[in-house]
Design a protein that fits this description.
By secondary structure, the protein is α/β, with parallel strands linked by helices. It has helices spanning 3-9, 36-47, 53-64, 97-102, 139-148, 161-171, 182-196, 209-214, 226-231, 243-277, 283-302, and strands spanning 14-17, 29-34, 74-78, 82-87, 90-95, 115-121, 124-132, 152-156, 175-177, 199-203, 217-221, 234-236. It is built from 11 helices and 12 strands.
């Protein structure tokens, strides 16, 4: 979105990545239900209005099992936490461990990877759903390309630490901050900027909009939420992770071409000025130094359009 963004991208020192929808495909599937089909029905009834990929997977699992979805009397989506709803006169909480802790609900998570959606009814823990995501096929290669170009990589996610570290280990990311609310993501991003320098944040969710706006360069996946696309400086037209290192290479190469043009144009003009002072420059040489050099710079710049 503009030349200033290209200018900023060539100086990026750190790439900060979200997990869901960025490193992973976002095609969640319910892998395990602790609490029976009634728990799945309860959770799906609360999640049916949400567009979050985890919520969509829960609703799909309920429909596959032909469960009737009930209409909540009240519903509130809590960014980075989950959902609080009133269903048949009971207060239902569906979300992560932080949501349970905020409401003083005693719970027990399962060991292992995957995202766990905890469910509580009237302050009592009822069970959980284990939901897993699929890693993008090019994620590991993209991370390797970024690291080879001298860029530091950090993952910021609202998911549980176990699920986040499992993905990070697969793709080779060493710095992981998990269980973050949107505001905490922004705080961690500012800490990365202070430590490493200019940072680019890549995300796709509605919760990522504040971080995208606060980064030196915010990049959104084309399949992401409208709020993320609106807040981003860069929008990738595909969801491929390799678009990230490719975009940084294009920005750096564009900067090199710009400097080539500046040095070439000033150099030719300086030579012609010296020749003119010495009485050797003709009118046609002066025209070449002006219009001719400008045309050569334009042709040099056009090379960027044919990059593969």
């Amino acid at each position: 979105k503009g030349g200033q963004v290209m200018e900023a991208m060539k100086d990026i020192k750190a790439v900060v990545l979200d997990k869901t929808g960025t490193l992973t495909k976002g095609d969640f599937k319910v892998q395990k239900i602790v609490g029976g089909m009634q728990l799945l029905q309860l959770c799906a009834s609360c999640e049916q209005q949400s567009t979050h990929p985890i919520a969509v997977s829960i609703v799909e699992a309920a429909k596959e099992n032909k469960l009737e979805l009930l209409a909540p009397e009240a519903l509130e989506e809590l960014p980075g936490l989950g959902i609080r709803a009133t269903l048949q006169g009971s207060e239902i909480l569906c979300g992560n461990a932080k949501l349970m802790n905020q409401h003083n609900v005693k719970f027990e998570e399962l060991p292992g990877g995957g995202t766990q959606v905890l469910v509580a009814v009237d302050g009592q823990f009822r069970g959980l759903l284990v939901i897993d995501d699929t890693l993008k096929g090019d994620a590991e290669a993209a991370v390797r390309q970024l690291r080879s170009s001298g860029v530091e990589i950090v993952m910021l996610t609202g998911d549980a630490e176990g699920a986040a570290k499992a993905v990070a280990n697969k793709v080779g990311i060493r710095r992981v901050h998990a269980g973050l609310l949107p505001q905490q993501k922004l705080e961690q991003l500012q800490a990365v900027r202070q430590e490493l320098g200019a940072a680019m944040f890549v995300g796709d969710g509605i919760n990522d909009a504040p971080v995208l706006a606060g980064a030196d360069v915010g990049a959104a996946m084309g399949s992401g939420a409208d709020a993320a696309i609106e807040a981003a400086d860069v929008v990738f037209m595909t969801s491929d992770m390799e678009a990230v290192p490719r975009a940084l290479r294009i920005a750096r190469d564009t900067g090199k071409v710009a400097w080539q043009n500046v040095v070439f144009a000033l150099g030719v003009k300086l030579i012609v000025m010296i020749l003119g002072l010495c009485g050797y420059a003709s009118m046609w040489l002066a025209v070449f130094a002006d219009s001719g050099v400008a045309m050569l710079c334009v042709l040099n710049s056009i090379r960027m359009l044919y990059r593969k």
